[in-house]
Specification:
mainly alpha, 87% helix, 479 residues, globular, single chain
Length: 479
């Protein structure tokens, strides 16, 4: 039953992200073509600015709630109620800060879009406790279904905005409907499938909760600062056009990052539950997760590097030709992120979140320093290179910290995945001669065959995967 739950959650999240990626990419292509380089830069800058100053809206409370509720489901309702009280106050405070900072630090034409986007940030934050408790109860299939519905709504709203020919203000105003619908859907789902909140405004408990969430708050702040500071620095050093070029490259990275983080996140509640009674089982879970994530991340980066010269102009137009090299560099951050995601979840699950916070702080400082040096000389490619270098350092540091859980076969796994990816890349590089669809199909078959031949997956895992997919298919037919 445990394996079936994991399979259901992984399959539902993966399917949801594939659907969301396809729909979202279609909408993004239309939006990129509609806005153009300059207005796309303004839109992405305003979105980044609002999300950056909206970090106060969560303070890492959902991460803490997921861990605590997974460890003790009997008290999940009271924990949910306490987090919702704090979340409401923090969301209101973050909205005020976004509006004020948007007026003070930006030109008038961007202040109003930033304020409207701030409303969306605050409303979305109100939904995160419900999602956290669904995850704690391992009902990620429900949250995945809501994500797909939210993506469909966002695509529809973008189409409406394009159809009406709305300007930047009109676009963000229409898109503000999406987080409102998301809040309603998640709240109803959590009540039905997890637990209802028990609201009790206990000052002492709220204060203790705030103290416990400090490392998670710092984690959220520095994680978002780390990922978004390059956009801010590019805008200030190179202007809106550079941000537009970089944003087009980042569309692919964001999509893959969402897929990877959602797959890896499935195991976070399970790791929290295993953190006390059975450390050996926790180590096996971490090692398995690392192998699976490496087997996804490295070939994804390899394929995107090869296909970027065809993919970027095909989707975004020849005006975004400068995005190709930025994407070819930046995409390797995905391979590194995929590998350390399960390791970070392990640290959070076993109560060593401060160690990950220290790694994040160090990486953020290095990223800012490298951006100051590389962006003036190399522009978007410099920003991309800075991110990749920092991700490599982050992987080494996190792997070193997690070693206390037990030996994990990092080198053995990575060597086999690199060999399989190299074989796949040889086939894929012939796409100009045999066509993209044929090359991708043959490359995928080559990679899967290499996975089996190099025994990256154990016999038990291969058998379990086949059984999971058969059971999922039978379940789908029965429904």
């Amino acid at each position: 039953m445990i394996d079936r739950v994991i399979a259901r959650n992984v399959a539902s999240r993966l399917l949801a992200k594939i659907l969301s990626y396809g729909l979202g990419l279609t909408a993004s292509v239309m939006l990129v073509r509609y806005l153009g380089v300059e207005r796309l830069g303004q839109f992405h800058y305003a979105s980044t600015f609002a999300s950056l100053f909206g970090l106060l809206a969560s303070l890492g409370l959902p991460i803490l709630l997921t861990r605590d509720a997974a460890r003790d489901k009997t008290s999940a309702g009271s924990a949910l109620g306490a987090v919702m009280v704090l979340q409401g106050a923090l969301s209101l405070l973050s909205l005020v800060l976004i509006v004020v900072s948007g007026v003070l630090f930006n030109p008038p034409e961007l202040a109003l879009p930033i304020a409207i986007l701030g409303v969306g940030v605050a409303v979305h934050a109100l939904a995160t406790p419900s999602v956290a408790v669904l995850n704690a109860f391992e009902r990620m299939d429900i949250s995945a279904a809501i994500d797909v519905g939210g993506t469909l709504l966002r695509v529809a709203l973008i189409l409406v905005a394009i159809r009406l020919g709305l300007d930047l203000v009109g676009l963000v105003l229409v898109l503000a409907l999406s987080p409102i619908a998301y809040l309603v859907a998640t709240r109803l789902a959590a009540d039905r499938c997890a637990t209802r909140p028990r609201i009790d405004v206990n000052v002492a408990r709220l204060r203790a909760l705030l103290v416990s969430t400090v490392p998670f708050a710092l984690m959220v702040v520095f994680n978002n600062l780390y990922f978004r500071i390059d956009i801010i620095m590019l805008e200030k050093m190179r202007g809106d056009a550079a941000v537009g070029v970089y944003s087009a490259a980042y569309k692919f990275v964001d999509a893959l990052l969402l897929i990877g983080s959602n797959i890896a996140g499935v195991l976070y509640p399970r790791m929290a539950a295993l953190s006390g009674p059975d450390p050996r089982e926790l180590r096996r879970t971490v090692e398995t997760a690392f192998r699976f994530m490496a087997a996804l991340g490295v070939p994804s980066a390899s394929a995107m590097t090869i296909l970027a010269p065809w993919l970027v102009p095909s989707l975004f137009g020849e005006g975004f030709g400068a995005s190709v090299l930025a994407l070819q560099v930046l995409i390797w951050a995905i391979a590194l992120m995929f590998m350390y995601m399960p390791l970070v979840h392990c640290l959070n699950a076993i109560g060593r979140e401060w160690q990950w916070v220290l790694v994040l702080i160090l990486n953020t400082a290095i990223n800012i320093g490298l951006n100051f040096v590389l962006i003036p000389w190399y522009g978007t490619v410099g920003a991309a290179a800075s991110t990749v270098l920092c991700e490599g350092a982050g992987l080494v540091l996190v792997a070193w910290v997690v070693r206390r859980v037990g030996p994990v076969g990092y080198v053995r796994t990575l060597a086999r995945v690199l060999v399989a990816s190299a074989l796949m890349s040889v086939v894929l590089s012939s796409f100009h001669e045999i066509g993209v669809v044929t090359a991708v199909t043959l490359a995928a078959a080559t990679y899967v065959g290499a996975l089996y031949g190099l025994r990256i997956l154990t016999v038990q895992e291969r058998t379990a995967l086949l059984g999971w997919f058969r059971s999922l298919g039978a379940h789908g037919v029965a429904r």
